[in-house]
Fold Phosphate acetyltransferase.
Amino acid sequence: MQTILLVPISRGIGVTSAALGLIRAMDYNGVKAAFMKPFLQDDTLDKQSSLDSSSALIMDAFGLTPPKSINRQRVERMIGDDNLDELMEEVVENYQSIGNNQEVIICEGLVPTTEASYASQINRAIAHALDAKIIFVSTVDTSSPAHLADKLDVHAREFGGIASDRILGCILMRVHDVPNTFDSQPVAPGEAVVSLDKDFMQAMVRLSPHFNTDQFRLIGVVPFSDSLSVPRTWDIAAELDATWLHVGEAKSRRINHISLTARSVARIDEVFKRGTLIVVPGDRDDLLLAAALACINGIPLAGLVLTGGVVPNPTVAELWQSALKTGIPIMSVEADSFETVQSLMHMSAEIPSDDTERAQEVTRYVAAHLDLSWIKEYFSGDHKPRLSPAAFRHQVVKKAQQAKKRIVLPEGSEPRTVEAACICQSRGIANCVLLAKRADVEQVAKNRDLILPEGLEILDPDTLDMSKYVAAVVERRKGKTSDIQAAEQLKDTVFLGTTMLQMDEVDGLVSGAIHTTASTVRPAFQLIKTAPQYSLVSSIFFMLLPEQVVVYGDCAINPDPTAEELAEIAIQSAESAAAFGIEPKVAMISYSTGASGTGADVEKVTRATQIVRERMPNLAVDGPLQYDAASVMSVGKQKAPDSPVAGQANVFIFPDLNTGNTTYKAVQRSANVISVGPMLQGLNKPVNDLSRGALVDDIIYTIALTAIQAYSDAI
């Protein structure tokens, strides 16, 4: 196990962001990383986790549990008493509590500030106590290479000089005047690597000959990004000491613009845009009513700050009731408008520990600008490759891009679906077809500040020649549906999209953002039907565990499958896993392992395992296995020492829907695990259902999964 200490050279450079990105990039390359922050920068802790903000963000982003940090008061007392060695013993004890299951531990060093003047001394002591390698984290003025060279030289002296074997290199954060082509799009680690100006690099080499050599690598250059510095409306309330009048969607709305508004209504139309925080005197009833109208018309403002300690009178408050239903956050402050805006301008850019969405965006963004070749070289030969969640997601997108499939989205004017379709179309994940009126889609795009990309198809069902679809439905359902019944069914866009899929006009279908699972799946059973080699349809979830990606099946479709059906589910799931780059090791789950239990349920799993072995003799499969015997190596060796699967299973087949769905939900919620799915398998053509609470990212990955299924079915 190795240790890397991130040493910040100055304040406000984003050392935690660097840690987030570095851990994700390592995870993408199959390197298991843990995190610790040995000492608190200040003694502020996250109320929910009792961790410092850095550790809380890491825990939320990666499911890691960093050890507690030593508080500043104790550090200052120990240094004052000349007990630095004892302090480092405590650091080593915390370090060892992480365990030996990681390949590297990323430590975040202290930022040198007036309050933490001992930062350099402490960082040097940490490096020696943990035998850590050093990566400096800094920013840079690209017009002054000498300034960076001097800073690196001064800080490197604490660790034996810039040519020391202990020093690996540096990451330059928040760099201005460099290309920034991936400002907010989620991209893969290493995909957006940028280089500094040639003249700058030549000057750096003259000033610091080891710079950007094997002795001192430039590991990443991360451009400054305005869009990743946007706070939530929720975050500014504490900064302003505001009183909430209506919280609404304050925890999800973000502030892209701040508008100090005091003009007449006729002259403020341009401020009513998505993401605008409007700062307005609390007694301007006309402006408040104009803002209410903007909300009702579908413009998602970031929020309203009413200044001067004045709140709306009861008449205005009554007129605002409809607008409040849109989720608009409203707060009141005692300060005047100018003071309020000044406070907002000086607000800290740190990511709040509970801002998961922003932390994930920053993590992706930083990782995209890191040099993966350095990670591969540094860790080559010292670890076993694995399919990490980050690598899985990237692989799904890449395979979908290669598939070039046409996916129909029956909920064509649903806002999340429109946004996901725009992203999929612009990134080449799929050619998306929205079933909706163009005017409705364009209005959604306007409200969400989306640009409808070239090639995005919008088909208005009212303008389609329905006669051919009626004929296709009647033919497919001979004796079950009349022309009149078919015409009525085709008014449902899910049924229409499924018919288009059956007629090969599209390659796959994704629905469910506003429809029930039954509404999505029923037309598929009626029109698409099962593939010739299968007798049933089942489902799987891809569970993005911190360690790796595993498959759970069936968690959504079949209540109580027979042994033959369970075997078929296992085969379908193994084939799906293989299609997505997972070498299947299938565990047939039961409440007992091997021959230790008896009863009909155990016999069903035993028989299903035998059938799978007969039909797929080269597949690694075993059962019955208890869940812990299948997933935990130490338990697997004890309970099933001769099993080819125990302790290392990555495809888990549950005996019934009750067990599967309960386990899926329990793991997802208790371990904060991201899941992708459910993905239906066994149909002639791919149809996939969304959760009605699906996020835009969920829809994007479901579209990608569907495209890959369509490609695999066509081979």
Notes: The chain has a mean pLDDT of 87. Residues 512 and 677 are 12 Å apart (CA to CA). The radius of gyration is 29 Å. The longest strand covers residues 167-175.
